[in-house]
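FAQ: What does the model actually see?

It sees only this:
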Amino acid sequence: MDICIIGSGNMARQLLPALQRSGLVVSGLHGRNHETAAALSAQYQVPLIAQLKDINSAVAILCVSDDAIAGMAAEMGNFKGLVIHTSGSVPSTILSAFTNYGVLYPVQTMTKQGRVNFEKVPLCITGSDASTLDTLSTIAGLVSQQVYTMDDEQRKKVHLAAVMTNNFINHLVVVAKDYLIENQLDYEIIVPLLRTTMEKLTQAPYNFQQTGPAARNDEGVINSHLELLKSKPELHKLYESITESIQGHAHH
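And it is asked to produce this:
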């Protein structure tokens, strides 16, 4: 079962070597960006495929941005194999022009730097029928130790939770860092606290206990913080909204 990778961005850059490491054959690579595709093809010794209609592997995995999936799929002509995309939020049915289609969504942030250890990445898979799901389970099982079968609706909900835990937390840290720097204070001051917070949330037995002024309903502290943020309406709004969410959560 040979696989062709379509795309040469962060997802392709991480998934391609992970497939190779798990013993799967990556027989081709196609990318719209010729420069990055050529570099990736040389790095992992995978033949470059110039035209999408020339792909004839058993499986094609679309590692492209959400809004590029439909267009790339349309260019694949009458591809006979299994077509998979890797998006969390796009339904599998966007590929329903093909006989066999599905999704393999890694619940992990893909960056240019470093190498993602896919063995530890949860993979959410969706297949158009039983035999497709069978093939997907085989591929996913070789790559990762955590495979979850689900439908499009469930995957969309996982993606929403992933956005809150990855993107929202990252953003809160970034605005806190900017705030410190603007006030001539060192970001390093909060790094050990952040590490402890993440350990508490990511190591069993998990500890979700909420601390801080909002959890204690300490109006004095909350108001003095809001006073500090008067000149920063966006941050003021964010602080207020999350404080209200914490207080609301405590009462139900």
